[in-house]
Design a protein that fits this description.
The structure is a single chain. The protein is mainly β and 310 residues long. It has one domain. The chain is 13% helix and 34% strand. It has four helices and 23 strands. The strands form five sheets. An eight-stranded antiparallel β-sheet has the order 1-2-3-17-16-18-14-15, with helices on one face. A hairpin with a 4-residue loop joins strand 16 and strand 17. Helix 1 runs parallel beside helix 4. The longest helix is centred in the first third of the chain and has 15 residues. Keywords: Signal. This is Phosphodiester glycosidase domain-containing protein. It comes from Glycocaulis alkaliphilus. It holds the Pfam family NAGPA. InterPro entries: NAGPA.
């Protein structure tokens, strides 16, 4: 079982935390180059790398952010309708360069989309081309993308942010008082309980009960009454390195981190995690766009951690 496999890894991360007092920061460059198991990237922000080989080879990357820390804030990609849709598609490294964010992951499902040929440049969207996302997105009180239950039926839940706190609830409407939010899915954990799988014809991987290694995955969850944000990217489709995760494995990982709510985000070739480095963005995982390991895909939008003091 994944839980029995992950437990020693997570226990090791907890035990080594005492050796890294606040202020003992590790650069993203060093963390990635040395494949360190645990790095404190900023006060209140940690990166974890989890590797396993049973039941399948798997490399998982986790960012844990203390949203109650006064030096951190969470932000979503600002809309850019200048090309005719809600956003301009942007690689995660470009997003980090332009915004100065400490860290970010990919977020919503998006259109138009074509995966492209192996190693080719015939994918859609190209960087900075027009893109729109599936499901509701709100940024600083503005509705960027409306409620939409038909375009992508994996969209089941929404994560909503206010300073120092977040909630993750079913549906696509944020509770009163939350100005920013992003919907996605499937909904993995609700109020501490794993969600019952829904059968979706033609979308077997949306079913958490599906066996097998799964694929590249991005997901997000909350712990500690919504003050601790857990962002997960699992590498996949790369035999000899990492096959990926299915949703059942994601659920067990979030439960091991103490998450009471969690949902999937866009995955596959979109799955990307990046951190601000000393000289530029550092991609912490190994994306698999157009079947090329390490190649980034232009994304519809992103979820990011920012330093408040900057």
């Amino acid at each position: 079982m994944l839980r029995s496999l992950l437990a020693p890894c997570l226990l090791s991360l907890v035990l080594t935390a005492a050796a890294h007092a606040q202020g003992a920061l590790v650069s993203a460059d060093q963390c990635a180059q040395q494949r360190l198991e645990r790095c404190q990237l900023a006060e209140g922000l940690e990166y974890h790398r989890i590797e396993s080989s049973d039941p399948a080879e798997r490399v998982v990357h986790v960012l844990v952010a203390d949203m109650s820390h006064p030096g951190l804030s969470v932000g979503l990609t600002e809309p850019d309708p200048s090309a005719g849709l809600q956003y301009r598609a942007m690689r995660l490294s470009t997003f980090l360069e332009r915004t100065g964010a400490l860290a970010a992951i990919n977020a919503s499902y998006f259109l138009p989309f074509a995966g492209g040929s192996d190693g080719g440049d015939d994918y859609i969207p190209q960087e900075f081309a027009a893109a729109e996302v599936s499901g509701a997105v709100y940024v600083d009180g503005e509705t960027v993308s409306p409620v939409d239950w038909e375009t992508d039926r994996r969209v089941e839940a929404i994560i909503c942010f206010e300073p120092g706190h977040a909630v993750l609830v079913a549906g696509q409407i944020c509770p009163d008082g939350f100005a920013s939010g992003l919907s996605s899915g499937p909904h993995l954990i609700e109020n501490g309980e794993a969600k019952t799988p829904r059968q979706r014809p033609g979308q077997p991987e949306a079913d958490p009960a599906v066996p097998g290694p799964g694929g590249p995955r991005t997901a997000i969850g909350l712990a500690d009454n919504g003050t601790r944000l857990i962002m997960v990217v699992a590498d996949g489709r790369q035999p000899g390195y990492s096959q990926g995760m299915n949703h059942a494995a994601l659920i067990e990982l979030f439960q091991a981190y103490g998450a009471h709510d969690a949902m999937s985000l866009d995955g596959g070739g979109s799955s990307t995690m990046g951190v601000r480095g000393e000289t530029g963005p550092v991609i912490m995982n190994r994306p698999i766009h157009t079947r090329v390991p390490g190649r980034e895909r232009p994304l519809g939008n992103h979820i990011a951690i920012f330093a408040v003091s900057e």
